[in-house]
Design brief:
The complex is a heterodimer of chains A (about 525) and B (about 500). Chain A is mostly helical. Helix content of chain A is about 75%, strand content about 5%. Classes of the chains: A mainly alpha (about 525), B mainly alpha (about 500). The interface between A and B is medium-sized, with 32 and 31 residues.
Chain lengths: ~525, ~500
């Protein structure tokens, strides 16, 4: 094992790291003079017209470099060998890791494009560098089967995301979001680290597969359950499962829109991949059972409880929201609950259902946040009232939002519908004698409730006639002051949601093949 | 061949997104007419023998890992339902000919409902059927919430949530069948022996889930409010097609897959059906709003469908299928007259107010259509309603004689409220002269184009009404046309053996 091999196998991560440095350098050289101008522009609360052209170009160059780097990294992932292992599982390459590296990179790519629509973004170089560092964290998380690397990946992602959440210096809500996210997150990380250390203490190894084998041979001890529960706490925080979701509403609402989108999508996908690996590979012998007639101690009752709580709390609290981002946050909690169903069911099918759902969910949510970003830019806010009569202002955005929200609600022919069908059928098949029926029924009840609040948003968009008076930006053929790129991206994302709904087999086949 | 009804309709819907608004109604008309023509051709082209079993027409692997196929099939029952879909769809487009408010969107949602309905009636794969079934839910919401009247947002949301709640129950039943039998193919599932224990809980869950859409008592309350709130075309689609989705799927999926469960629970279906018939008819008798009268009459008529199912004999079930066709046409006609011909000109549906207007003189064609529709609705011989209901009652007599006696009361009530509505709306006492309305504020602000009471019935309205009247008369005078195709298909179903 020499370093050349390492460089070859870790080329996507290396490319992203170099890109991050390059973006930082570009930001530094082009954006120097604009800081004062940007601050003064923010003070005078003026629109983009007042921002010096240099700021816009700096942002454009940085985004272009970042997007190019991400595209390059996707290409590098495709060039990787099918199977490889480095440092006893510190870094592994399997079809699964490659697939999800591509997905994470694509999510980062879309987020980069979103960043361009966020008017409040200052210091684009630094912001994008943080985003790219977080992406490296995601790649590490996805591409490892080892406890230490998992923790490093988690921390790298989290630290970058804390900064991204608090990035908008002019907005107190952003600071609040960053601080809350940081406090909850660091506590959760501490729990996870403690849990991991307990597990290491009992198994004497940090490789997931080795842990699995060790646990299978030795009698189950109470301390092991302490370790498992603590590990799960940290991951439950990352996926925003109740009762560890309290940071999510504030972070989703207060953070700059692209940060929120990335927290909700990329970070979540990678966390589900790693959670699945930990429980299904590392803790495989202590699966337990969450069936209503036979509850056996293990991690699956814990996850089932988390899922049930998330579904109930997320959906019920979402009913009362008037801010779209907050609503998306609570619905994210509920969706984390649904997604956990696949892991509770376990097995290849269950993991595949979870991965399909979380992938589709991530793309949907990036799209939804993209719409929010554009609406926010146009109307200055993201409350429900800001969306009123969006369909007459911008039919394209309204149509995209309808597709995203209806997919979240699980209506055909959109991807969310197939995702739910897959998840729920896997969950019902798992336990003998339909043991998980209670959880499936709860999840269905949850999605029934969820339709109501998604429809309320759509009602505001499509049914409400009176548009609130607002400063109407300059309209060009490319939409409001040239956000052509964002609109294309949103259309692509909406197209993906429809496509994966009509032809889910394209993604399911990939995931199932990768899980062999 | 008949599969093209689905493709044409969805293609029309997609086309509507990109076309200028002036063409919207023409595209919608062309699309629905093509669907109708396709189903009529299929009616005469496919031989009666082929319609006796649920015969595959298209089968393409879709998600092979999960055993999902894009699988369409047709038998006499499906064909009948496709036919009524075609008729009602064309009529509903004709009756919304003057929609000026966001017409592209309007016809887009309308075509989605129609296309989804064709899909449900022709699906032979459980997942596909459920996909089309759920696809219909959201378009209904927008149709009602944007273009409706009278408390439209409440009505729309109530209807949508009821439908989705039913959908959730159906979801449980479908997954239970799927994971037990390991297949989603309706033809294979119809051969699979489910354990009695599973059937005993899966059947009611599935059937009630579907029956929510069919307006089963006491889960019918979405129907009157939804019908009233909907725009005319929306009410026509709801009464004409959407309620049939529930009953059709109940027959095709719930009853056919879980015959033992059906035998266990059919008494209760009969009880609920009879309560529905009598209760809804009684409530309709007391309504002041013409559309509420018709909304409750829909619930009452759908009660007959469920009663026919509960008989579990070929005659009763065939009668139910015929009643689905019949009520689809009659319900659509009633709503067309009440919602489009009368309401658009008078801006009221209050029976007391209408009775002062002398509408029979002002709108003779509307009066004529309404008389025909009422006669058909009451079950006067010669109309399709009679053929269907008499078949159901003969079937029911074999199974539950008591139910027939109680239903008799219901039929009297149906006649009573229909005659009352007819008399009050068109043949009021003080109808010596035609009066125009003065100073009345229209309830729906969207329809700002004021039409006078004396405005003539338009050509589109006449065509739509004639189409519906022709359908009910044709089937009423020659029910064999459909019954010959329905009966063998019903007899092939498992729960009869």
């Amino acid at each position: 094992m020499n370093y050349l091999d390492l460089l070859k196998l870790a080329s996507p991560e290396a490319i992203i790291a170099v890109t991050a440095l390059a973006v930082l350098a570009v930001g530094l050289t082009t954006g120097r003079g604009t800081v004062e101008a940007a601050v003064s522009a923010a003070r005078s609360k003026a629109g983009a017209g007042d921002t010096p052209a240099t700021g816009a170009t700096a942002s454009a160059i940085c985004s272009a470099v970042a997007a190019f780097g991400l595209a390059l990294a996707i290409g590098a992932v495709m060039m990787l060998p099918r199977q490889a292992t480095l440092f006893q599982g510190m870094l592994v390459i399997t079809p699964l890791t490659s697939l999800f590296k591509i997905i994470c990179l694509a999510l980062a790519f879309f987020t980069v494009i979103l960043t361009r629509s966020d008017r409040s973004a200052r210091n684009p170089g630094e912001y994008l560098a943080m985003l790219l560092l977080a992406t490296i964290g995601l790649l590490l998380l996805v591409g490892t089967e080892e406890l230490l690397m998992i923790f490093i990946g988690l921390e790298l992602t989290s630290l970058s995301l804390y900064v991204m959440a608090a990035f908008d210096k002019t907005d107190v809500r952003s600071a609040e979001a960053g601080l809350k996210y940081f406090l909850f997150g660091s506590t959760a990380s501490a729990f996870t680290l403690f849990g991991l250390s307990l597990i290491y203490g009992m198994s004497g190894t940090t490789g997931l597969a080795a842990i699995g084998q060790k646990l299978a041979t030795q009698p189950i001890q109470p301390l092991l359950f302490v370790g498992i529960v603590m590990t799960l706490v940290g991951l439950a925080f990352k996926i925003a499962a109740a009762p560890f979701h309290l940071w999510a509403p504030d972070a989703y609402q207060g953070a700059p829109v692209p940060s929120a989108a990335f927290i909700a999508s990329g970070s979540k996908v990678a966390s589900f991949v790693v959670l699945g690996k930990i429980v299904l590979v590392g803790f495989a012998p202590v699966h337990g059972s969450a069936a209503w007639h036979v509850v056996i101690a293990g991690w699956s009752p814990v996850l089932a409880a988390l899922a049930a709580l998330s579904i109930v709390i997320g959906n019920l609290v979402a009913l009362a929201q008037t801010n779209v981002r907050r609503l998306l946050a609570y619905s994210a909690v509920a969706h984390a609950g649904y997604t956990l169903l696949g892991l509770v069911a376990g097995g290849r099918e269950g993991f595949s259902a979870t991965l399909f759902y979380t992938t589709v969910y991530a793309f949907t949510l990036v799209g939804a946040f993209g719409v929010v970003a554009l609406v926010r830019r146009e109307t200055g806010g993201d409350d429900l009232t800001n969306f009123s009569a969006l369909s007459s202002r911008s039919p394209l955005l309204a149509g995209c939002m309808a597709i995203f929200l209806l997919s979240l609600a699980g209506l055909p022919p959109l991807a969310g519908f197939f995702g739910k069908f897959y998840l729920f059928s896997v969950a019902l098949r798992a336990g003998a004698n339909h043991g998980l029926l209670w959880l499936v029924a709860l999840a269905l009840l949850g999605s029934f409730i969820s339709l109501y609040y998604y429809l309320i948003v759509l009602k505001v968009i499509f049914v409400d006639e009176k548009s609130q008076p607002e400063t109407s930006p300059v309209r060009t053929i490319f939409g409001e002051d040239g956000d052509f790129l964002q609109r294309v991206t949103l259309t692509v994302l909406a197209g993906m949601v429809v496509f994966f709904g009509i032809m889910p087999t394209m993604l399911v086949a990939q995931i199932l093949a990768a899980l062999l | 061949m008949i599969a093209w009804t689905i493709y044409i309709t969805f293609a029309g819907a997609v086309l509507l997104v990109f076309t200028p608004r002036a063409f919207a109604r023409w595209i919608a008309l062309a699309t629905t007419a093509a669907g109708l023509v396709t189903s009529v051709i299929a009616l005469f082209q496919i031989s009666i023998v082929d319609l006796a079993t649920f015969k595959t027409i298209v089968r393409v692997p879709w998600v092979p890992m999960l055993g999902m196929n894009y699988h369409l099939a047709v038998d006499g029952i499906s064909l009948t339902m496709a036919l009524v879909t075609g008729v009602v769809a064309v009529a509903s487009v004709l009756f919304s000919w003057d929609v000026e408010h966001r017409p592209n969107e309007f016809f887009f949602w309308l075509l989605l409902v129609v296309g989804g309905s064709y899909g449900v009636f022709l699906s032979a794969d459980l997942f596909l059927l459920f996909l089309f079934y759920e696809l219909v839910i959201v378009p209904k919401y927008f149709l009602i919430a944007i273009w409706g009247s009278t408390n439209k947002e409440y009505g729309a949301m109530k209807l949508t949530l009821y439908s989705f709640f039913g959908g959730a129950l159906v979801f449980v039943g479908i997954i239970a069948a799927y994971v037990t039998a390991g297949s989603l193919d309706l033809q294979q599932l119809a051969q699979f022996q489910f354990t009695p224990q599973l059937q005993s809980w899966a059947f009611p869950v599935l059937f009630v889930g579907f029956a929510v859409l069919a307006g089963i008592w006491p889960l019918h309350t979405w129907a009157p409010t939804g019908h009233v709130a909907a725009p005319t075309a929306g009410s026509m689609l709801l009464a004409g097609i959407v309620m049939k989705l529930g009953s059709y799927a109940g027959l095709r999926v719930a009853m056919n897959l879980f015959p033992q469960g059906f035998q266990m629970w059919r008494v209760w279906i009969a009880v609920l059906a009879v309560i529905g018939i009598v209760y809804a008819a009684g409530v309709a008798l007391r309504q002041r709003d013409l559309k509420f009268v018709i909304g409750y009459s829909s619930v009452s008529h759908m009660g007959f469908v469920l009663l026919g199912f509960a008989t579990a004999n070929a005659l009763g079930v065939s009668g139910s299928v015929l009643q689905m066709f019949s009520h689809g046409v009659i319900g659509a006609l009633l709503f067309a007259v009440a919602g489009r011909m009368v309401y658009r000109r008078t801006h009221t549906r209050d029976l007391d107010t209408l009775s002062d207007m002398g509408l029979s003189r002002a709108l003779p064609f509307a009066a004529f259509s309404f008389v025909i529709a009422s006669a058909a609705s009451m079950g006067i011989p010669g109309f399709s309603g009679f053929a269907a209901e008499i078949t159901i009652l003969i079937g029911a007599w074999k199974a539950y004689p008591l139910a027939v006696w109680i239903t008799g009361i219901g039929m009297v009530l149906v006649a009573a409220f229909t005659l009352r509505a007819l008399k009050k709306s068109f043949f009021g006492e003080s109808a010596s002269e035609v009066r125009t309305q003065e100073g009345r504020v229209p309830v729906d602000a969207d329809w700002n184009e004021q039409q006078d009471i004396t405005a003539r019935i338009t050509m589109a309205e006449k065509c739509g009404a004639c189409l519906l009247m022709f359908a009910t008369l044709a089937v009423g005078l020659y029910p064999k046309l459909l019954l010959d195709r329905i009966m063998p298909a019903v007899e092939a179903m498992r729960f009869l053996k």
